[in-house]
Amino acid sequence: MATLRSNPGPPGNCTLLVTEPRCGETVRAELKKHGLRAKNLRPTSPPARARLPAFPVADTGSARMLREELLSACRGLAELIEAECLHVERVEPPVSYVLVGPVAIVSLDERVRGREREVAEQLLRIPGVRAVYGKEATEGEYRVQRLVHLAGERLEEVVYREHGLEIPIPLGRVYINPRLATEHMRVAEMTAADDTVLDMFAGWGGFPLVISKLGRARLVVANDANPWAIATLARALERNRGKLKTPIIPVMADAALLPELLRPVFTRIIMNLPHSSKQYLPAALKLCSPRGCTIHLYTVASSPEEAAEGITVGEVARIVKVLDYAPYKYIYRVDLKLEGREKNPSTIG
């Protein structure tokens, strides 16, 4: 995300890596990971297959090798094509921010305080940005962002787009982090066709909606205690009706009480409440299917070892660093595998 300014001069030849919309975030992340995205190039026209994500690459040979890895993940559509590109100057704002539809949200930390107006005016120059809000904190029972208006229009609701889905987001009412888009796709792609999925802290529905769009799982139950989040999910279900394949059942309840409301039928459980997921493990275990289940537990830690600390049930199959959270702190995903009938509620040592 940056302000783009074209340099004078005619376009030149370039190579684009083209994929399908559902794989766009995955390709973007892989190109960034391998340092292969040519950020100073912009295609002069879309690829022949209209509206497909197309990324200029910096090294055609390395991109060709990466393409082979992406073919299976993107179901055969990861093509390198020759095109014309403009050289552009990328002017990066001096702070990190996220885009939620036409809104840029910047954390009001020590880098910004005292120069909020200056930073906001820079962010308003990004194409498509109509408003800038500052995030003061993530707080309250529902862990929502406390936002203050800094510049541009005053918007109460925006349409956020992720993996071809459209979600109407009420600003400051539900937690949203566009940097989780790739993680939503990763978990969706791990989900089997015969899974029964429970998202204990679904929020506006990032995991359930992407799982449903891919047609994974037989059923997804999406729970959240925040009434705004459940209302947002309900509207997203209606808005994206033609794109969703797997049924999603919204539930609004305290996650600790779910064993009193639901039967133990779930083969995959998502627990994305990083600051307190572990305290809800006993409830999750009571909801696992008798034939076993996989639990994706998210937690804040400084190392993989700390992320797994205190978990004494099941097999820790994988620990993945998902996002940077703070200096020397990260959000990790701990994948737990539980065999059939292993539902010992003593999980935290």
UniProtKB/TrEMBL annotation:
GO MF terms held by the record: tRNA methyltransferase activity
Methyltransferase among keywords: yes
Domain SAM-dependent methyltransferase TRM5/TYW2-type: residue ranges: 97-340
Keyword S-adenosyl-L-methionine: yes
PROSITE patterns hit by this protein: SAM_MT_TRM5_TYW2 (PS51684)
Keywords: Cytoplasm, Methyltransferase, S-adenosyl-L-methionine, Transferase, tRNA processing
Any one biological process term the GO annotation gives: tRNA N1-guanine methylation
Domain of life: Archaea
One cellular component (GO) term of this entry: cytoplasm
InterPro entries assigned to the protein according to its UniProt record, in alphabetical order: MeTrfase_TRM5/TYW2 (IPR030382), SAM-dependent_MTases_sf (IPR029063), TRM5-TYW2-like_MTfase (IPR056743), TRM5/TYW2-like_N (IPR056744)
Record protein name field: Methyltransferase
Organism: Hyperthermus butylicus (strain DSM 5456 / JCM 9403 / PLM1-5)
